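U., I forgot to send this yesterday:
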Amino acid sequence: MKTLIVTGGSAGIGLQIARRLAVDGNEVVLVGRSTDRLTAAELSLAADGLTCRTASLDVRDADAVNDLVENLPQVDGVVNNAAGNFTARTADMSLNGFRAVVEISLYGTFNFSTAVARRLIADGRPGAMCNIITTYAWTGAPGVAHSAAAKAGMLAFTKSVGREWGEHGIRVNAVAPGFVPTDSATAHILSSPAAADRMLGLIPLARFGRTEEIADAVGFLMSDQASYITGSVLTVDGGRSLGVSMHDAARKDEPS
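Result:
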């Protein structure tokens, strides 16, 4: 049995990833900041006959991350899903707001990845990591420059350490989800039926993604079925990122 850590695992996509990994027979460690949310997540998994460990900490706290990883009986990998985000015009964004998002997503990924890598190398064990990024890491997107910068950093980090840690049998990949209407995402992005229709019109498969579909992609990359894959990005967005510039230009040319 493998022990896999999932950060930001108390709700939404993170919780569904944890569920998939547990169904696959792994021991899962859920990491989040809220003890109450972690308890609720644990109960949700228990309702499906699944078990997990939980750890309440801030992924930006390198000492807390190191303590967790060092004290677990066994570690085989991590899914870096914890993220912060909000929409704002970049010119109006505060440095603190930019910093918070970058530190949660990028610094948190660095903290957990390096802690797990050190543990795996010391134990002489292979391992797997999966970083949850986004397609606007390479397409860009207005209103989320802070998140795009953080996710682009995660993408470069994925490829860099995938190359560096391969000699130790540590695989590092990423999943780039498209829009998945979780409660949080819906509240911030789908502000009206028109917004939903407009977004759907840009997706070749003509529907939004499901948390289960993102979890399936992560489950594959974390499994031995992906044993010869490292430094790769699996895009799960229904084709939304294909021809994104052309679509944007077409919208600008439409009559007002």
